[in-house]
């Protein structure tokens, strides 16, 4: 059944480590992944925590732009992703190459590709 599952690309584009007593970092590590499927659709993966104490989910772009999830994106140092998400919400296109280039400009390295 190899050909029946769509291939997805998962880009880890924002993440923070857990705080070590500092108030400017979240208590739990947080991350934001953008997921691109074979049909060209983007979804947003949000997660936090470590190991069995972690939680997360995959959301549509519309759901990711809701206030509560935007707060998570900001906590994960992903506020720079919001203009890309808004463009997708408005019916525009965003390419993996464009996201990787923006990430590289911010961080000086390529993002982690999980799948």
From TrEMBL:
Disordered: annotated span: 1-26
Sequence ranges of Basic residues compositional bias: 1-11
Source domain of life: Bacteria
Protein name as it appears in the record: Uncharacterized protein
Source organism per UniProt: Litorihabitans aurantiacus
Lineage: Bacteria, Bacillati, Actinomycetota, Actinomycetes, Micrococcales
